[in-house]
């Protein structure tokens, strides 16, 4: 797991927080795939935390609403 993310998520205030990662710039040919980004960030190690990686292209607006919808749905559960 990425040290910065891991350190932040271990803060007591964030113990119940969900994690949304936007994999931006998916319109570019060399963009990292969602699965590769998930592996690089080590998100699978977050077994007790709900997380989601959303592919996005901010300049085109694709994926942004889908990610925010996921976040809204998750937050409404807590």
TrEMBL record:
| Gene Ontology MF annotations | GTP binding; GTPase activity
Q: Which UniProt keywords apply?
A: GTP-binding, Nucleotide-binding
Which organism is this protein's natural source? Cyprinus carpio (Common carp)
**Gene behind this chain?**
LOC122140465
Which protein is depicted? Answer: ADP-ribosylation factor 4-like
Key word Methyltransferase present in the record?
no
Q: Which InterPro entries does the record associate with it?
A: P-loop_NTPase (IPR027417), Small_GTPase_ARF (IPR024156), Small_GTPase_ARF/SAR (IPR006689)
Q: Does the keyword GTP-binding apply?
A: yes
Pfam families named in the record: Arf
Where does the chain bind GTP? 24-27
């Amino acid at each position: 797991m990425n040290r910065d993310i891991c350190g932040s998520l271990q803060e007591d205030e964030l113990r119940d927080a969900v994690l949304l990662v936007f994999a931006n710039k998916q319109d570019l040919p060399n963009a990292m795939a969602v699965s590769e980004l998930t592996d690089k960030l080590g998100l699978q190690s977050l077994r007790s935390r709900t997380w989601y990686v959303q592919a996005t292209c901010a300049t085109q607006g694709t994926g942004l609403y889908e990610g925010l919808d996921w976040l809204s749905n998750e937050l409404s559960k807590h």
